[in-house]
Structures are given as structure tokens and as C-alpha cells.
């Protein structure tokens, strides 16, 4: 059989096809290179690629790799901004997530945090038109409307004196549902029955606080009130409170103990807080009793106190108070005032709620993700002198070592050394590092690792309040902080904090790496990148961060500070301090979303 002679180009069609594909692919790569390098398309694709990388939650390995690069300083781009609709995002109080949970005892309105791998790694932007907040004390009465343009409370509660819109501001006349004529006259009336003045009372808890007209008015009486409310239909009420410069955070009395130690508050106040105190066998009243200092005062205004169609609820409330031997001091209209007994409750006794005393296995100050107990805390279960009348009056109680400090070995010596150390350190912060403490620029302060509250105590002459955070896995010293007349909460810094974005002017942390480590171990439970992104979320634009730790840790912190867009300097420690420490002082830059990123 003969062979057909073909031209050379047609002798091997398979070979020609392969060469064609390779050539086309090569020219496509060249074209793509020129597009990426020399046209705006390249910048757009790179930005979207980084955004996809930073916001990705579908691949934990990818997220872990990014965290590792950021800690090593090998990721040179700043962390991207979160979407524009996240300006008020609180990861653990996300209505979209929590609305799927049980309504029983308001479980769905408590803290429910996403896993770190489910959390977008991005920086919360300020809202459009955000301004540096009005400074204290003017902020007590007015704030910028554009910083939280939520008109719901003003529209619904303006006639009750909560707040109203006036030009570029929200104005706070000082009223409330139960005191539309103003909190000042309401507090003056309470003073007929309670020692409001004179330093006998110092720490107060305001439950379901609205915009904290009560807490704001108590400040001039020398009473430091921690106000709380859940994230609920009154959109952003706690955000308004913090913008005003009043101590507050987001919290719900539901299925768990509130994150405070036993016998912390001298006064507990509820003005139309609508907490069903006698429901669930009086579980909520029992929790209030755990928190109230012996000899302290409980004030409930509004339902069910002499309220129409709530006769049974009012009768039950009086009955449970009697069962715990509370003295009913006064009933004035819809306001009832009780005084807690100085010593142990008169339980056990016959009562319709089945109340009994807690046994010895109950630690009444264990309150981080701790289910509510249906038993009553014995005063004698906590060592020390902490009843009203046995502790010094304010301000002496700030500097006299509380007897509850004795729970730690050499506790009194530790307390006194801690007090001296922080007085020296704060003076160094102000005089050498030029931290703006003591100026109107700083009002809301957080100490993330507070121990005995020495840092806050050293600020006693400054126009600030301090949220003292005691890490839940460290020694539970928060009771000492309250005995000093300061306030704070338990928290685990491997989770986001229960506050809105942009609520603190200064955040301070000594020993930042210890917050993410297993106690007594070098193993980390979480990472510094997520922690510093959370610090950034809580910090106001142009706010200050002060972090002290070993030089190696501070070097790592400085690398991450660049990624979260802070302007940072590393400084030597005070000459008088011992140990190996450096101090990072950083300022959060005031950046805003661009039209392309929103």
C-alpha cells in the first residue's frame, strides 16, 4: 500500500494542536501581567482578593495562615475594613445569630459568641459622618447625632425626657419613664430614705437603664453606677450611655449569673426594668440578693409596685423580700425601697418559693457563664468584712486594704505594693509618655487585666471612670475592686467584650500575652491578632492604647499594631520598675470607609 505525501505542517496534527495551546496560554499570561501591573484592574483585583482572604470564614486553615503572617509581620497590607453595615456590630450580641435560640428565660438575649474561625478578620469602620465625640462633661448632656443616628428612642421616649434630637446633637434632659421631671428630683426623694450623700454608698447597679439618666445624675453624688441593658428594641441605648461618658455595658439577666462577684453593690436600682423578680421560684430576686452588699439598698420603681392589674406580682415581690428578711423602708407611689439585713438571711424558713440556703460547695463569686442558682447565698460563706457600715466610707475605702484581699497569700502586702506601683506607673504615663490622662480627651477607660484595680485607683483625681476587667481564668479579685469603691466585670479575652464599637477613649493592659495563655502554661488558647482586632473595635478613633509586656511580646504587638492601623511607639519602662518590660503606646488612626470599600 502506497504512502500519501503531505506538506510538513500537516504531517503531525496532534503536535500542532499542542503548540497552539501552549502559545495561546503564554500570550494570555503576558496580557494578564500587563493588565494587573499597568491598569487599575490590578489594584481592584488585589483589593478584592485581600478582602476575600480577610473575610473568609469557610477555610479555617486560610484564616490561621493569615493570623500567623500578621504576627510575624510578613503581611504588609493593613487589615481590611468590615462592610459598612457592620458599624455597630457586637459579635456576641448579634440579633441575626441569636434570634434562632430559645426564648426561655431570655436565653437568646444573653451572650452567644461565634467561634474565632467563624469571625471575619476585619476592622469595624465608623459610620458615615462620624465625629470625634463631645468631651466630658459636656457629653453628659449632648452627643453628636451622626455618631449613632438612631432616632427610635428619641421618637418614642422624648416626651418622657429621655432624649431628643436638636440640630446636630442628641440632647439628654435627664428624664426617664418613672421620673419624667428628671432624675435629680427622683434621687433627692430617694435621699429621704437612703444615705445618698456622705460616702456611705459608692457602688450602684442600674438594671435596664435606658439612657442612664439615673447613673449620670448619681455621679455628682459621688456614687459610681454601672448601668446595663440588653441589646433590644430600644436600639443602641447602651451605645448612647457610653457616648455620654457614663459607665455601662450590654448585659441580660437571663439564665446565668451576672458577671460580678458576691456582695459587690451598695445599691441596686430598677426603674421600670421589667425583670420578673418572682418568676422561676424567685430566681432573679435571689441573683439580686447575691450581688447586693449586706446592709445595702434595693430600689424598684414601676411595675409591679402598686401597679394596676399587678396585685399578685406586687404581693409576691413583698413576700420574697420578707422571706429573705429584707426591711421594707418605704413605699412611695410606685417606688419601693428595701434594706438588706447585715448578717445571714433568716432562712431556712417556711416560704412559698421553696428558697433554701446554698451549701458549702457554692462559690458565690464564680460568675462567668455560671448558671443561676435557686439557692440563697449565705453572708457567712464569704470571709471578710464587707457589709455597709463595716467598710470605710468613700473615699477612704479606695486606699485601705479590704479584708477580702486576704483570700490571697500575703494579700494585704500585695495590695499595698500594687497601689504604690500603679501610682508610680501612672505618673510615668502622664509625665514621660505624654498619655493624655487627666485631660478632657479621655473619659471612658478600660483596664483589661485589673487585678486589685491599682491602675484605676491611681486615676482617682482624673475626670475618668474605669471598667476594671478581671480575666475569668485568673484569681477572682473583682470583689476587692468593688470593696475599694470601683467597678468592673469578669471576662475571658478569648471572646469579644459586651460593648458597642468605639466606646472607650483609653484601653490599658499589663501582661497582654497572659490573657490568651492557659494558666500556668505557655500554650495559647487564642491569638494576639484577634485580641487586638477586638481592642480596635472597642476603641474610639484617635483613642489611646497602652500595653506593657516583655520586649519580645511588645515587638510582636507592634507588628500587629501596624496591621490594625495604629500609630505606635515602643518605650522603656519606668526607671524604678523591676523586670523586663517595654511599654507600647499607640493611637488609633481616624480612617473612614471609601466609596469603593463600602
Automatic annotation (TrEMBL):
Superkingdom of source: Eukaryota
EC numbers for this chain: 2.1.1.-
Subcellular location: Endomembrane system; Membrane
This protein's record includes keyword Transferase: yes
Transmembrane segments: 21-41
GO MF annotation, one: S-adenosylmethionine-dependent methyltransferase activity
Naturally occurring in which organism (per UniProt): Gossypium raimondii
Range of residues in the leader sequence: none
Gene Ontology BP annotations: methylation
Record keywords, A-Z: Glycoprotein, Membrane, Methyltransferase, Signal-anchor, Transferase, Transmembrane, Transmembrane helix
Name of protein: Methyltransferase
Keyword Membrane: yes
Membrane topology note: Single-pass membrane protein; Single-pass type II membrane protein
Family: Belongs to the methyltransferase superfamily.
GO CC terms in record: endosome; membrane; trans-Golgi network
Coarse class of the protein's main subcellular location: membrane
InterPro entries: Put_SAM_MeTrfase (IPR004159), SAM-dependent_MTases_sf (IPR029063)
PANTHER family: PECTIN METHYLTRANSFERASE QUA3-RELATED (PTHR10108:SF763), SAM-DEPENDENT METHYLTRANSFERASE (PTHR10108)
